[in-house]
């Protein structure tokens, strides 16, 4: 079986798993309710407000409404409402043109395909009524290139320049297998040049007055409570224009409170359903629970720059000491699979060989080889939500078996992201969601991303070389081999402790139609309707 077919086969397995788990959720109106119950006019089956409004609730508040000023999943959700990129990822996680009407790749003087000519649709309107042109595209990508938060998604871009009013030329630093994925990332979404020109006098303008060309316009943000959006009536893509006019985006950090809110009829959609509520919600005919296998990789991160976590034997001991099945049972109520490797499964380039499984005696052997006293290890695990805290409690008990006493701290998401990016931690429970292996490796392990998304603070020249090589390898089979080599290197280095790949657990009112969640965790609110 060739490599492409193997990946397609894996995706089919994931889809079959989804069918088995969900039974009655899905991407269309068929089977939108639990059991055999049909949607009713019961207010608790939706809508919470009226048919012009959908009320979404989430555990984590976005740290920013900017596109390039963060790399948080909570922010990505919002960015997808208000902005567009030159490309977007479709439901199968493939890059497809969005703002771009046509594009082509040309060879440079050395015969390499490094010149990308992209023409955007004519007449695209921003939310303020101005019309998008090539100047906006150039300014947006140049702005993204200087943002430390998303630098791994602009690294291959050497320059971008205007060709005519609707066409730009992007020059890459060699052939690029990752550019179209990078341009689909929220950090490269397009904002008006007129706003970017005002940043010097008003540094918060992109956060306080976000203007995009996306399907929804920003209306208001009551921090800590909710955000409001309304449909962009002049959205350029009529086929993907919003069917529901208004979105109310509520922040409800506590999992049980989110469950109470949807069962009471107060909200219509939960992005992160607490796994402890699954049985209760599955039994409620007024709601539909969607359980989608994801490519999100979750772990215990330890700071590789801090003693003794700078020692591979200590890291391997911690890894071998943790019962990841128990973590999944306690933290996720069983809705996940063990993450065996330092990189996700379900992507081109996956590799699960040469790793240490759960083995307490092996963990003790690693500590004995290290030669230090486990009682001197000071590990504090920072958590930003209930699920992470439950995982940390299992880890805490496991580590105690090998003589390591650990503590658990809680932080709000914005503080958590800031502290971990700055390296102010010994450990934290976290994860990374990417849609393909190149972006994952760049974001999580490339040394140039220390201070942003490389939170283990791994700095290995050989690994950097493999990651960059993969992004420049156009042949898929050859690229897969390089990606697997990078994972083998990481499994031996063990920079962090992989825990699980979870399921996206979303719940919505039974009357809400056209719901769908990708393996990357994205959903398409503009497609929903009552």
Structure description:
The chain has 530 residues and is an alpha+beta fold. The protein folds into three domains: 23-65 and 207-291 and 504-527, 3-Layer(aba) Sandwich (D-Maltodextrin-Binding Protein, domain 2); 73-205, Dipeptide-binding Protein, domain 1 (Alpha-Beta Complex); 294-503, Dipeptide-binding Protein, Domain 3 (Dipeptide-binding Protein, domain 3, Roll). Helices cover 30% and strands 21% of the residues. It has 16 helices and 17 strands. The chain has helices spanning 3-22, 73-82, 134-145, 179-183, 193-196, 205-208, 255-263, 278-282, 312-321, 324-332, 360-370, 386-400, 413-421, 437-445, 461-471, 476-493; strands at residues 53-58, 87-89, 95-97, 100-107, 113-120, 157-164, 167-172, 216-222, 226-231, 246-251, 269-270, 287-302, 336-338, 379-383, 406-410, 427-432, 496-509. The strands form three sheets. Strands 1, 8, 9, 10, 11, 12, 13, 14, 15, 16 and 17 form an eleven-stranded mixed beta sheet that branches. The protein has a four-stranded antiparallel beta sheet with strand order 4-5-7-6, covered by helices on one side. Strand 2 and strand 3 (95-97) form a beta hairpin. Helix 9 runs antiparallel to helix 11 (360-370). The radius of gyration is 23 Å and the shape is globular. It starts with a helix and ends in a 21-residue tail after the last strand.
């Amino acid at each position: 079986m060739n490599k492409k077919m193997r990946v397609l086969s894996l995706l089919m397995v994931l889809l079959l798993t989804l069918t088995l788990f969900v039974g009655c959720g899905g991407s269309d109106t068929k089977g939108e309710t639990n059991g055999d119950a049909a949607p009713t006019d019961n207010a608790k089956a939706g809508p919470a407000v009226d048919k012009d409004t959908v009320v979404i609730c989430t555990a984590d508040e976005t740290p920013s409404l900017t596109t390039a000023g963060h790399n948080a999943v909570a922010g990505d959700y919002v960015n997808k409402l208000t902005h567009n990129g030159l490309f977007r990822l479709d439901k199968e996680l493939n890059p497809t043109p969005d703002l771009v009407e046509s594009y082509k790749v040309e060879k440079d003087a050395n015969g390499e395909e490094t010149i990308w000519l992209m023409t955007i649709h004519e007449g695209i309107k921003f939310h303020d009524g101005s019309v998008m042109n090539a100047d906006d595209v150039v300014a947006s990508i140049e702005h993204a290139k200087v943002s430390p938060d998303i630098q791994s998604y602009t690294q291959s871009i050497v320059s971008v320049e205007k060709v005519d009013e609707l066409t730009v030329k992007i020059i890459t630093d060699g052939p690029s297998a990752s550019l179209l994925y990078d341009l689909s990332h929220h950090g490269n979404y397009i904002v008006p040049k007129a706003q970017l020109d005002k940043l010097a006098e008003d540094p918060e303008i992109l956060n306080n007055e976000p203007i995009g060309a996306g399907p929804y316009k920003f209306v208001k943000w009551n921090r800590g409570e909710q955000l409001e959006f309304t449909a962009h009536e002049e959205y350029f893509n009529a086929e993907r224009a919003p069917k529901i006019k208004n979105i109310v985006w509520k922040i409800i950090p506590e999992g049980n409170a989110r469950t109470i809110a949807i069962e009471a009829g107060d909200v219509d959609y939960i992005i992160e359903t607490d796994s402890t509520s699954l049985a209760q919600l599955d039994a409620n005919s007024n709601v539909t629970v969607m359980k989608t296998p994801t490519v999100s990789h979750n772990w215990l991160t330890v700071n590789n720059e801090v003693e003794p976590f700078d020692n591979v034997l200590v890291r391997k001991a911690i890894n071998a000491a943790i019962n990841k099945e128990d973590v999944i049972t306690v933290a996720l109520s069983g809705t996940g699979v063990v993450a065996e490797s330092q990189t996700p499964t379900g992507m081109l380039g996956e590799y699960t060989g040469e790793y240490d499984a759960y083995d307490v005696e092996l963990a003790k052997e690693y500590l004995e080889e290290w030669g230090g006293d486990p009682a001197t290890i000071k590990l504090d695990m920072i958590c930003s939500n209930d699920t992470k805290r439950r995982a940390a409690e299992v880890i805490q008990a496991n580590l105690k078996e090998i003589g390591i006493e650990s503590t658990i701290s809680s932080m709000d998401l914005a503080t958590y992201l800031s502290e971990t990016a700055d390296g102010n931690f010994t450990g934290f429970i976290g994860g990374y969601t990417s849609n393909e292996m190149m972006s994952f490796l760049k974001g999580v392990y490339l040394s140039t991303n220390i201070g942003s998304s490389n939170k283990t603070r791994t700095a290995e020249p050989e690994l950097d070389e493999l990651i960059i090589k993969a992004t420049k390898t156009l042949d898929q089979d050859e690229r897969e081999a390089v990606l697997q080599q990078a994972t083998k290197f990481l499994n031996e280095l063990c920079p962090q402790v992989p825990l699980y790949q979870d399921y996206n657990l979303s719940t919505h009112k039974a009357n809400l139609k056209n719901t769908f969640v990708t393996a990357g965790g994205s959903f398409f609110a503009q497609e929903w309707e009552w």
